[in-house]
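Reopening this ticket.

The earlier resolution said the output was attached, but the attachment link was broken on my side. Pasting everything inline this time so it's all in one place.
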Amino acid sequence: MNPKIIIDLNKFTDNLDYIGKKMKAKGLTLTHITKVYAADPNIVKVADENKYVDYLGDARIENIRNYPQVSKPKILIRIPMHSEIEDVIRYADISFNSEISTIRFLNNEAKRQKKIHKVVLMVDLGDLREGYFDVKELHKAVAEILTMTNIQLFGLAVNLTCFGGVIPDKGILQKLVDYKNSIESSYGLSLSMISGGNSSSLYLLDKDGIPEGINNLRLGEAIVIGKETAFGQFYDEMHHDVFTLSAELVEIKEKPSVPIGKIGMDAFGQKPVFVDKGQMLRGIVAIGRQDIDHLGLVPIDKRIEIVGASSDHLILDLTKCKKDYKVGDSVRFYMNYSALLRAFTSKYVNRTYIQQQYNMRNFFYKKGDRPIVLCHH
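Inline output:
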């Protein structure tokens, strides 16, 4: 039933394999982030069975709680809330942290559940989202963690690009390695994970730009869309249509291209602007802003243009399509990260799965023929 996300599990596997091989060749472990597809258990199962995936990570403990039975360690990558500590210990093997008060609660709860919980400390290297910014505060936290009975200090991690837009480079990541070396020498320990960021760090693999000492990356968008996110470059060797959206036409009518009357604010408090194209064959598909980020959609049929969206309707310009579409037909779209994230979160968008054999050599896009999808980190 429409609207629906069409999920090609074979192409998803191909993308995991391609990225996984690149990372293993550089001595890096792969944490696959499952949040963009809301930890759909059918997709998580494929990732868990992939030989190149070392960890599974998500920002929502609810998603990790709903994982199927998996063999890979599970990481909560968003800093835990105090109100979810019990579930973090119960369902996650590792959590990313930046507040010692939270780690104290984790220790107490791990003791109650008779578990050893691993923590990775986030370090802020300039993107100004989460993480220890002050080196003294970081060392103070390390010293206290080492006194805890049920917490194991597992490593350090950095997040870049997601908030401040800071592009990772070798110099920035070397600072993380310097923190690692300082902690290990000061406290006589060895840290297992030094995670050098997300899909925006991926471009450094091809430039030998990841310094020795970084041994992990956390990748979601690169795998599901087939691109690095520092500069938004697609990989020719990867699939860019692992996920596509299908929505159903509920109206097709010829109407003016500009509304008639005085223009005020729309339902979202914005004053819309329209280009006068004369009479237009307008189509409406049954999906809207409640379900999708319409700015992140690109029609697969290049003759179709998106006019705009309301809460429940996506308005299309079908003028160039003549009589190729009728009410009840489906229209397919590529999705960027933002559109994909919202579509999977919406309970009104269904899911269907493809798992069949095909000839990989017949798939790859010719240059200039890939979907133009807006970059979203």
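Reporter confirms the inline version is readable. The radius of gyration is 23 Å. DSSP finds nine helices and 16 strands in the chain.
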